[in-house]
Amino acid sequence: MATDPDGSQHVEGHLPISAGGAGADENFEEEEEEEEEISTAKRPELDETERKRRTEIKVKEKEREEELVSRLAAGVNPEDGEGAVEIWEGIELQKLPLRPAAIEQANREIMLPVVSSRNPTPVATILLVGLKNVFQRQLPKMPREYITRLVLDKNHISMAIVKRGYRVVGGICYRPFEARGFAEIVFCAVDSSEQIKGYGSHLMNSLKDHVRKAHPTINVFLTYADNYAVGYFKKQGFTKEISYPRERWVGYIKDYEGGTIMQGRMLPKVKYMEVHQMLADQKAAIIAKIKTLTKSHIIHPGLQIFKERQPDEEIKLTKEQVPGLAESGWNPDLDDIVRQPKRNPYHVLLQHVLNDLQSEPSAWPFVKPVDSSVVADYYDVIKNPMDLSTMEHKLENNHYESIEGFVADVKLIG
Q1: Fold that domain 100-275 belongs to in CATH
Q2: In which region does residue 98 sit, left (phi positive, over 0), alpha (psi from -120 to 50) or beta (all else)?
Q3: How distant, in Å, are the alpha carbons of 376, 379, 413 from that of 370?
Q4: Its domain of life (predicted)?
Q5: Domain ranges of the chain
Q6: Is 184 labeled as catalytic in the residue annotation?
Q7: pLDDT in tens, the chain (414 residues)
Q8: According to the 3-state scheme, what is the secondary structure of the chain?
Q9: How many CA atoms lie within 13 A of 386 on its CB side?
């Protein structure tokens, strides 16, 4: 121990606490607080907070869905607090509740910003990188460098679905060709954990309204879809029948091996964010018009004769004895037509087989008919040409009366 002139003692080689001055104790406490803050920051507090936030959002979504269901069951419009009915030329038009994705956007739980690297900002850069990551996760067969190059290319524009914290959960990347009147959809994907909320349809409708405002000369979308995306694009109004002039788009859009080119046309008077309400209004107007021309909406009481029927008693009636049946124009031959199946019983099986054939990488030479301008003597050598697109057309139009006919066409390809 060492003794100071003032009589205080301390361990040799160490300064006494008083050597730090009057604020030494305070400084020491501050250092301890800083160490605690540093150690706290190292713990995964942010992840825990994010987990709690997501749990709260899910609880709110569930509560909102339950409220919507209860209001609808009671015949109450969820948006107006009561059954809202708009009268148009004497026709009652029931107002539909908003879709879940639209409700989330109205509550600012999601946002749909349009971003591009043409005028980069820090936020736009964050969203583009997040969008690039989503595309790379959801499109694993696409080269990662290729996705990065297109998303960050100045000629491409993207619309992203963004949640709090700049978290990108989906989006569409497109390239406009204003001089040629169309836009190419390059990438379209929604994170796998968010695909049950209607984000895909909401995103496409938002994109259509945006493109019509931002690019007035564009009214057509073109895209190459893989077998997994064809169903989605069909639901969004796309078709495999390309009516847009070939000379306006060939050589301008990216051609993917094994992909199916699809076309979507935008109607000038349709607000796609309100398309569900518009279709419901049209349906109500058509039904109201039908009621003025027919009596199909009239409900007749049951036949008393069947209530008084004795056991084992067989009753046969003519159509004139059934109220409203003769007036409807019904005849027994119609039953035979209605009972005919729309599809062959093995249609689903053949559809699955055809999808597997189309997704086979080695089937690329047989996806479409051979162009005679490329191979001049092909149809002279091959007397019975066949390809997968022709088989798809035949299957969709019920040309295969048996499985054997389908197998015969497959053998023509093989």
Answers
A1: Aminopeptidase (3.40.630)
A2: beta
A3: 10, 9, 12
A4: Eukaryota
A5: 100-275, 346-412
A6: yes
A7: 444 444 545 444 444 444 444 444 444 344 444 444 433 334 344 567 767 777 877 777 777 666 665 655 554 544 454 446 666 666 667 777 888 899 999 888 999 999 999 888 999 999 999 999 999 999 998 899 999 999 999 999 999 999 998 999 999 999 999 999 999 999 999 998 888 888 999 999 999 999 999 999 999 999 999 888 888 999 999 999 999 999 999 989 988 877 889 999 999 889 999 888 888 888 888 888 888 887 777 888 888 888 888 888 888 888 777 887 777 777 777 776 666 667 778 888 999 999 888 888 888 888 888 888 888 888 888 888 999 999 999 998 888 888 999 999 999 987
A8: CEECCCCCEECCCCCCHHHHCCCHHHHHHHHHHHHHHHHHHHCCHHHHHHHHHHHHHHHHHHHHHHHHHHHHHCCCCCCCCCCCEEEECCEEEECCCCCHHHHHHHCCCCECCEECCCCCCHHHHHHHHHHHHHHHHHCCCCCHHHHHHHHCCCCCEEEEEEECCCEEEEEEEEEEEHHHCEEEEEEEEECHHHCCCCHHHHHHHHHHHHHHHHCCCCCEEEEEECCCCHHHHHHCCCECCCCCCHHHHCCCCCCCCCCEEEEEECCCCCCHHHHHHHHHHHHHHHHHHHHHHCCCCCCCCCCHHHHCCCCCCCCCCCHHHCCCCCCCCCCHHHHHHHHCCCCCCCHHHHHHHHHHHHHCHHHHHHCCCCCCCCCCCHHHHCCCCCCHHHHHHHHHCCCCCCHHHHHHHHHHHC
A9: 14
Name the percent of the chain lying above pLDDT 70: 80
Sorted by sequence, the CB contacts under 8 Å of residue 326 that are 6+ apart come out as: 319, 320
Picking from 49, 47, 45, 25, the residue whose alpha carbon sits closest to that of residue 37 is 45
CA dist., res. 95 & res. 276, Å (int): 10
* Catalytic choice (12, 184, 327, 404): 184
Q: For residue 391, with 0-12 CB atoms within 10 Å meaning exposed, 13-18 middle and 19 or more buried, which class applies?
A: buried
β-bridge pairing 220-225 and 114-115: unpaired
CATH of domain 346-412: 1.20.920.10
